[in-house]
Amino acid sequence: MTGARRVRFTGPRSVEVAREPVPSPDDGEVLVETSTSAVSPGTELLVYRDEVPDDTPLDETIDALNEPFAYPLSYGYAAVGVVAAVGDAVDPSWAGRRVFAFHPHASHFCADPASLVPLPDALSDEDAAMLATMETATGLVMDGRPRVGERAAVFGQGVVGLVTTALLSRFPLSELVTVDCHAPRRERSRSLGADASFAPEEVPGAVTDRFAGDGRSDLSFELSGNPDALSDALSTTGDDGRLVVGSWYGEKRVSLDLGGRFHRSKIRIRSSQVSRIDADHAGRWDKDRRLDYALDALADLEPSSLVTHRIPVAEAADAYRLLERNPAAVQVLFTY
């Protein structure tokens, strides 16, 4: 080992890769040597652009991220690697295991074995790195509760939107439509099972032309991260329909017209975020069960097909510039 590397956000649009000694695990820890980690384009670009509200914990359920947002900081939550060393109080069988960790981007890190997800041999590192994305999409679909024969619309076909579309395509929906600004993403969407995909300027006309009856969806998802898309999603959702908002807008403000039709529509708008299990599911589901489902779904859906760029971690700053400027960059993986 020649030393450890760790990605750090040092200010708005400022990223460095720090060099530091390889850490040694405490008695109850293991040392993980990372092979790849997935960049979350939505949340990590908010961090990169300084668009996270001040004093907001980035994730209260992940120990490494349970601090108010402030520069400098390390971020990320999708690392795959191998246990390179174990502490004196850890079962020696952990040594050599391939694992997933909800941990910021770093070449080496120490962790409690209980926080790690052992990976099946048949699952590739690149598919495994998408576990957090798959768990997020699973939670979104669970909160949407798709029903037989429903008409569904997904706004935003970034990586979370695409994986959500892939999951929804497994349901016996009558119609699955997606919306995104970028033609390559719309094409990917159709390849994953969407019946049709449209540009935002085609909403509501082309979208509602697809839907029988009142021309609106029974179930809509807003996953674009763009506040303007929420208005489009609301206008596309039919009376008594459901609108699931999975976007985190950070400090961007949302303006909605809640007069007129909405006042009598009985549309249910609900937030969805992966950190919590909805109370309606809590009697039968917990995070471990949802994570197990997501792990199984990785093998079936092979989301690594959505990886567009593999970038050495030493060039991390280039990766964030790429994600900000190039809409064809759907999923970036750091290699170590």
Please outline what is shown here.
By secondary structure, the protein is α/β, with parallel strands linked by helices.
Overview of the structural elements:
This protein is an alpha/beta fold and 336 residues long. The chain folds into 2 domains: 4-119 and 302-335, Quinone Oxidoreductase, Chain A, domain 1 (Alpha-Beta Complex); 133-271, Rossmann fold (3-Layer(aba) Sandwich). It contains 10 helices and 15 strands. It has helices at 41-49, 125-128, 131-144, 159-168, 183-191, 205-210, 227-236, 261-265, 287-301, 316-325, and strands spanning 4-11, 14-20, 30-38, 79-86, 98-101, 108-111, 116-118, 151-155, 175-179, 196-198, 217-222, 237-245, 268-271, 307-312, 331-335. Strands 3, 4, 5, 6, 7, 14 and 15 form a 7-stranded mixed sheet that branches. The chain has a 6-stranded parallel sheet with strand order 10-9-8-11-12-13, sandwiched between helices. Strands 1-2 form a two-stranded antiparallel sheet. Helix 8 links the parallel strand 12 (237-245) and strand 13 (268-271). The longest helix has 15 residues, at 287-301. The protein is globular and about 65 Å long. The two termini are 12 Å apart.
- Our Rg estimate from Cα atoms comes to 20 Å
Order of helices and strands: EEEHEEEEHHEHEHEHEHEHEHEHE
Mean pLDDT: 94
State the helical fraction. 25-40%
CATH level 1 class label of the largest domain = Alpha Beta
Multimeric organization: single chain
Q: Which superfamily, in CATH terms, is the homologous superfamily of the largest domain?
A: Medium-chain alcohol dehydrogenases, catalytic domain
Task: Please report the number of helical segments.
Answer: 10
Count of separate structural domains: 2
Which regions are unreliable across 5 or more consecutive residues at pLDDT < 50? Answer: none
What percentage of the residues does DSSP assign to strands (E)? 25-35%
Structural class: alpha/beta
How many DSSP E strands? 15
Termini Cα gap: 12 Å
Protein name: Alcohol dehydrogenase
InterPro entries: ADH-like_C, GroES-like_sf, NAD(P)-bd_dom_sf
GO molecular function: metal ion binding; oxidoreductase activity
Family: Belongs to the zinc-containing alcohol dehydrogenase family.
